[in-house]
UniProtKB/TrEMBL annotation:
<feature type="compositionally biased region" description="Low complexity">
    <location>
        <begin position="302"/>
        <end position="319"/>
    </location>
</feature>
<dbReference type="InterPro" id="IPR006624">
    <property type="entry name" value="Beta-propeller_rpt_TECPR"/>
</dbReference>
<feature type="compositionally biased region" description="Low complexity">
    <location>
        <begin position="328"/>
        <end position="339"/>
    </location>
</feature>
<feature type="region of interest" description="Disordered">
    <location>
        <begin position="302"/>
        <end position="344"/>
    </location>
</feature>
<dbReference type="InterPro" id="IPR011042">
    <property type="entry name" value="6-blade_b-propeller_TolB-like"/>
</dbReference>
<protein>
    <submittedName>
        <fullName>Uncharacterized protein</fullName>
    </submittedName>
</protein>
Amino acid sequence: MTLAIVRFCLVLFCVVLGAVMLLKGAWAQETPTAANWTRLPGTAVDISINSQGQAYVVAPNGTPWRWDALEQRWRKMSGDFVRISAAEGNRPWAVNADGAVFRYNGLWWESKDTDVADVAADAQGNVYIAKVNGDIKKWNPLRSEWQPVEGQAYRIALDMAGNPWVVTRDRRIAAFDGKNWGALPGRAVDIAIGGNDTVVIADAEGRIRVWNDGQRSWQAVAGVEGVTAAAATPDGGPWAVLTDGMIMATTLLVAPEKIKTEEGRAPEIKAPLAVAPIDTAPVAVAPGVSAAPLTPSGAIAPPAQVPPATTAPVQTAATLSASPVSPQTGTTGQTGTKTVAPAAGNDATIDPVAVTTNEDITFVNTQKTASALAIGRDGSVFGLDAAGNVLRWSNSRKQFESFPGTLVRLAVDALGNPWGISTLGRVFRHTGNQWKQITGATGSDIAIGGDGSVVIADASGTLSKLNDAMTRFDRISGQGLLVAVAPDGIPWTIRSDQLVQRCASSPCEIFAQKAKSIAIGPDGSVYVVSDKDLLMRLDTDTKTFDVVRTPGHTPQSVA
């Protein structure tokens, strides 16, 4: 009897040890990968992104919302659901609380089946459902019917080959390679696959993990806890929905602005207004091209002791009158140009670019349209066209020329090299020979000061500064959606309510002026384009902004 008990205990020990070793293998990489998470305003219960970057969420009240990457805001859709999947051509699929699955046809939702627990679709037209009883079925569009597929699932995602990866009701993970199912280690509550086949799960402990196929293990991603739903961007960047509904992202989905120009006017870079009601769905999010207003509580410090926004007539500085733009008759003619050299005298210790000229400002028509401009300390001028292509001004040819790269935000360093933010929110710098990414950094706006300080603002308005080794961005005090940097390295920003502020310390110093664009010259001159489309310059004595006259033209942004 005693021998039998000993044998039983040994068997039990081996079983337990085997289970522990299996779990250890599943989480083999226990040193979490560092990631910069950005909180996206609003709340959700489910989220989905396809390989084309089309993103959808379901709000806690069941309302589906679609991300508009051009206008940088969430757009409300009809319906009442608990699960949603991005699909091809902005035609998502969704499941309601009763288990009915629907497809959006562009006008309304079409019912396709019942007793469904989850749905997964991709940009290639593949659609799978997991039934309440665990059965898997694939949609046949030619016959308009569901065809059974071997296997069991409760949550489902599709890789770039259109094959399903699943999580079962008991949280086991499996993948189909087109012929056979293969079990994967670990436990999960949700699964998603990015456009580069990066597989992301929300594990049973509420963490985000990414599949490492070489090590056959799940690698933890640090920064968030309590994850209930997961998604992945086209480049594999994880997104997560937390237990309190917060939406978190490591990679932003942004797109070049759609520019509408009028004859004789520069295109406008304008921050769209949020349209999603609070407490029902995400508000305008992730800026990139045009930083959208943020409205959730706690995202922005309350504007205590803010001077009232100017309601009295705007002060006009007569000495700041700008000469009218001199239109050119040809692409190379420079009639009306006026180059002003700073009056630095003969003192070699004075940096000429730090001297403010008192000459009139003369604008010259370059015969080129752009969506953004940036000027370096050395006078190098770069721009972005309507499609985000980089342009560089040639002094010898007196025109803008193409420069390698596509961006949505732009800045220029002291050496005349451009920096920028891509459509995915990633930060790049040009070395003079090639573009290099600052790994791990995502932003929605970027600016460079005369002292070389590089500052970015992310979707939530958080400011970060590049370290001296140029390897990462570190969080700094201050907040804002649009940023500029003074020669002393102090950031100036425009808040979501369009108020201008100087962030030398916390809290930032707020000015009673609303603006939609801001720039600071190497001499420290602060220029803005007001919310009334007026070009204005800061009077450092009165700390008010004076109008710079631009007869016959309406400023839209400033550099």
